[in-house]
Amino acid sequence: MLALQALGIALLTPLSSMIESAQHWQMAEAYLERIEDVIEAKPEQSISRIAPTPRLQGILQSRTSVSVMIPTPPSGNRTIKDISLHIQSAKIGPRGRSGR
Prior knowledge:
Blueprint: H1 2-40, E1 59-62, E2 68-69, E3 79-80, E4 85-88
Antiparallel strand pairs: 1-4, 2-3
């Protein structure tokens, strides 16, 4: 029984390696085809007609009534209602639970 198992492993290990190599070749072929598609694609804009991008400016403003839950330890009241928000010329971004 042990000899049969060893023979099976000896046969299947190279076969498995060959199948894995064939899969890698297929992936490489697909990647090369995609690269060829990108290289042969026509540009979306004419290089001579590209206009410079204007500097981004903007205002973030909330025009709706918003209720926000903010923990306030001493009082226990956790709701702030009807917040009006107006942010101009600032960098803002989302933050997660960790504060980062």
